[in-house]
């Protein structure tokens, strides 16, 4: 079962195990999802629901006092033996309390993947909003802080010309920064190809033509998916 619930104990540590699929009834999960990400960054809910039955993904619900206060989804990119952290967010009510750092530590550790009996990522990749494309100075600072947050866990910028595909019809292409685990000798070309093919084409069903065009626009290389 690719769904895990973690609980915050009295020592401020997260503990948990794979759980029965409560995603549809976990309103706190969806409230955080809708609040933390702008509409253009949110993929259809059925995509996330589908991950629960996947052998190549893990959906996290982090709870404090029985209430969901954090969420995360990770999808495995088998060709790179890595995990793609698609969404990671904390409830607005407890942001800045250190809860997010503890959540990220859980996501980066192998224990939850072992318990869920899915592949254990050796490394990680994720997308973050590009500071240079922020709507104002406040948003630029928030985006820079987000990159710094991940850098403390050795997830550092790999490619600043990355383009996130449109997640729903009519949505725009979003300029992002692609981060990856430190010390990993992975090229931007290989990373983007795996993300486009194994996540956005296979899981989200985005057409190969769209992805091939974005790959060329961002990297100047023709390829196929």
Task: Kindly report the average pLDDT value.
Answer: 90
Architecture of the largest domain, CATH level 2? Answer: 3-Layer(aba) Sandwich
Helix content: 25-40%
First CA to last CA: what distance? Answer: 29 Å
Q: Which structural category fits the helices and strands?
A: alpha+beta
Number of extended strands: 8
Count of helical segments? 7
What is the count of distinct domains?
Answer: 2
The first-level CATH class of the largest domain is given as Alpha Beta
For the largest beta sheet, what order do the strands appear in spatially? 2-1-3-4-5-6-8-7
What is the H level of CATH, i.e. the homologous superfamily of the largest domain? Gcn5-related N-acetyltransferase (GNAT)
Structural Rg: 17 Å
Low-confidence stretches: none
Percent strand equals 25-35%
Shape: globular
Write down the oligomeric state.
Answer: single chain
Q: Main sheet?
A: 8 strands, mixed
**What is the succession of H and E elements?**
EEHHEEEHHEHEEHH
CATH topology grouping of the largest domain: Aminopeptidase
What can you see in these coordinates?
The chain is an alpha+beta fold. It folds into two domains: 1-121, Gcn5-related N-acetyltransferase (GNAT) (Aminopeptidase, 3-Layer(aba) Sandwich), CATH 3.40.630; 123-225, no CATH class. 33% of the residues lie in helices and 28% in strands. It contains seven helices and eight strands. An eight-stranded mixed β-sheet has the order 2-1-3-4-5-6-8-7, with helices on both faces. Helix 6 (188-201) runs antiparallel to helix 7. The longest helix is centred in the middle third of the chain and has 15 residues, at 137-151. The chain is globular and about 50 Å long. It starts with a strand and ends in a 6-residue tail after the last helix. The mean pLDDT is 90.
């Amino acid at each position: 079962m690719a769904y895990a619930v973690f609980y915050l104990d009295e020592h401020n540590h997260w503990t948990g195990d794979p759980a029965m699929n409560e995603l549809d009834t976990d309103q706190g999960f969806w409230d955080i999802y809708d609040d933390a990400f702008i509409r253009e960054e949110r993929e259809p809910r059925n995509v996330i629901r589908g991950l629960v039955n996947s052998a190549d993904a893990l959906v996290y619900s982090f709870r404090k006092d029985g209430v969901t206060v954090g969420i995360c989804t990770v999808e495995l990119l088998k060709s790179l033996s890595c995990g793609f952290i698609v969404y990671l967010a904390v409830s607005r009510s407890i942001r800045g309390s250190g809860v997010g750092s503890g959540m990220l530590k859980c996501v980066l550790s192998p224990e939850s993947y072992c318990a869920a009996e899915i592949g254990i990522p050796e490394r990680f990749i994720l997308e973050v909003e590009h500071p240079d494309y922020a709507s104002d100075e406040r948003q630029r600072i928030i985006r820079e802080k987000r990159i710094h947050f991940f850098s403390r866990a050795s997830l550092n910028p790999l490619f600043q010309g990355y383009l996130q595909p449109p997640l729903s019809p009519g949505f725009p292409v979003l300029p992002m920064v692609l981060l990856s685990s430190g010390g990993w000798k992975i090229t931007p070309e290989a990373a983007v190809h795996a993300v486009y093919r194994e996540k956005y084409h296979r899981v989200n069903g985005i057409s190969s033509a769209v992805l091939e065009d974005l790959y060329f626009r961002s990297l100047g290389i023709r390829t196929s998916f």
